[in-house]
Amino acid sequence: MERARVRAIGVPFALLLLLALAARSVTSFEVPEAVVGAFGGSERETATIGGQDRESLESDAETFADELGQNPDDRQPSSVHRPGLTPPYRPPAAQHPDVETVDDGRQPPFDASSLFQHHFNSFFNTPLETGFFGTAGLPGFGFFDTNANRPWWKGENVCVEREEKEEDITSSDNDEVSVNGGAASGGSSFGFHGFSTFNLNVQSCAEKQHKYVCTSIKNVNGRKRTEKLTRQCCHGYGRPRNGPPNAHCQKLDLYSMEETVERLGAKEFVSTLKKSGLDATLENDVTLFVVPDSAYTTFAEQMWENNLVAFDPMARAKRAIDFASMTARDMILAHTVNGTYFIEDISNEQLLKTDLPGANIRINIYPRGPMAATVRDQSHAEHPYRYTANCAPLLKLNRVADRGIVHVVDRVLVPARNTLMDIIEVRDDMTLMRTFLEMTGLDKMLREQGDDKHYTIFAPNDDAFLKLDKDIRRKLKAGNGCAMNILKNHILDITFCSLAAVNGVKTSTYNMLNEKLEFEYAMVGKTRVPSAVEGELSEVEDEGKKTQRIRINGFATIEESDVVASNGVLHVIDSVLPTDSGMPISNTLGNHNLTVFKQLISDAGLEEEFDGMSNRTFFIPTDQAFEQTETGRYWIRQLKEHPESLRGNAALKEFLEYHVAEPLIKTCGLEETTIPTKAGQNVRINLYTTNPVFTTVMNRATVNCARLVRFDEETCGSVVHEIDKVLDVPKTNLMEALSANPDYSMFQRMVSLTNLTELLTSPDSGLTLLVPKNDVFLEVDSWYQETLQNQDELERIIRAHVLPNVICCTGIVPSEWPFVRTTETISGHQLKLNRNRRPQVQNAGITKCDVVARNGIIHEINDVINVQSKRTSSTGAGSGNPFESFGSITRPLTFWFK
Known about the structure:
disordered N terminus; disordered C terminus; 7-stranded mixed beta sheet; alpha+beta; 26 helices
């Protein structure tokens, strides 16, 4: 009743009362120290502010007085609490992970009668230490729940563990910071010494469900001191998972280890433990991974079958590794870990050493799949992750007993003493897999053991390899470099248990080739089931039943999952996972419909040679590119009309090898340069941008002016880029190309009268030559004849038609004001570039593009380039490029693909 009258006063009167109190002198109040936990005392945090102890101003919100009895239903909720504070509150037992629901539905009682749990919480919602009333607090008044604003790890029933380590510092990164050249002295955590030197400290804190850990690294006089302070609920106390964020440690209803295990439905496990003479185990602080009775019975039946003389020899051989020399005592020891381990304190891939020598338990953590809004799964709310022990799912977690912790696992954990390679070697259905691993040297990796050695191998059985094309099998057995990539496509450097795949969604990860693998459950129509035939076990097809299996990339099905090894896990699959990076070039060409080039390789008798290449870059024309060029159409006719003439054809061999460059270059490594080919001639790489604003972002590439239309298609040890033109092997330089074409004779005569002949014959020039045809000069014949007599004007005209870099037609894109694109001639004149119906350079349209020579290219144009006399400056309005920063497309910049 008194409490109700206080609430009815209202906020304004309460504020006046509080302000009056603040004006009075502050007095120190004594508060009893926190209750000491069962296994350690709580550390007292004090800070003097305004001449008083901060902890003395913080009172506990509630005090629980729980009494342990034989029957939890006989215990009544305590009504003892401090004056002026809210009645004690107990959350429902189902909300706490450490309180187990009894099989008959009984739950520990709780008091839900607290009506005033948060007084003025909507008004004073900041932490008390930094809130409106400062650090002094409001002692003596009971209508403020100070515990709600007090960190749980500063409350009652919190035990503190301190670890300290001091070591010498040899690294210069750990030297103390000096000011004004003073020398350091003393050892305070952070302070000034004569205003000349201070020590640099680093502190970090992390909060978990039941633990608050602060690590402090102090650098004092050349020595590094590391202090780790762990605050956690004392044994027998815990924090409700679904309670308030700052819920304090509450007393748990604990039972003995034996009773806790039995209440979890593992009576057979306890019975075996006692029969094995391991009763003393239950008197120590241990972590038990117990098995439910149903799973334990199944395991016992398997053990009995394994010892039958008439048991199938093949099946027995497969189980020999798992069950050999296993006794009931060994089984219990393999599930026992010294020390108490909450599941949140165990990291992914961590190995827990069991009491059975040589047997570890590997813990893995996987995210949960999306949960439908209509589904209420409390385990999903309590634990956002799923956990496995040796790939066996953990069904119940963190069940605290009076001594130790219990986790429930869904099956018996068979000791994993053998490596992945050991398992593969003894299986009769993996002879080919073993051969390929040994041939490539990957067997050594699969034999490695250690805390940081964990692999997953999706191992195709012999039947899976026999389903491959015979040519691919032949190449693999021959030891071609593809075998390494094919096998790495099946290996992960993490432990991927079958629990990681979630039904109804796709789960993905990346293999050792950094290629994506997707896993999803699918209904498999034909399943292999055992059938007794003449006293032996065999496998037959059962088309009437369907079962769910995990499929990888929609291609391979996991037939046998979670074969646990000491260094990872093995899954048996029914098909070899395809990857272009593991297939020879001939297969890659077929998979990407590059049929003409593939047929030319085959008819020329070069398939074996091309398949054996590695560290190469293949520029492969598309089938359409063959049809659109004269050279391409010629080779198509040869394929149709005279295929027999292609065998050993030297011209064809040179043509094909000119499309193969060395070394392997992906688009991220492209730059403007020339690279050698297998034919002996170089090809020229050019990069361009099509963006009118971001001219520094290169998003188009050419090789000998053939545009890359698809790129970075991996093959065995090489990469394939598809191009839109065939690559003709250039036989002439620019000057020779002019002389060879009678339509260019008048321009060639002008060049011969200047001193530019040497420039056009230089092998390393890399020029673009703009050549008007004779028809253009004949229309202005009088001007042409007059220009031939004027040496200065003649050289100015020719220089206006020579660009100092290669600009292919594909690099010329629409260009309008204000984003005007220009390029510069060898004499420094700015020429505008644009594209309407055809590419344009200044006032001339390009009528024939990209005549490739050894030292550059020729564009045929329909007009003489008209330029003014060169000015002293190329900037300003007269330069033809008012926004020059947008104009240059010839700078060698990084090439980016989207």
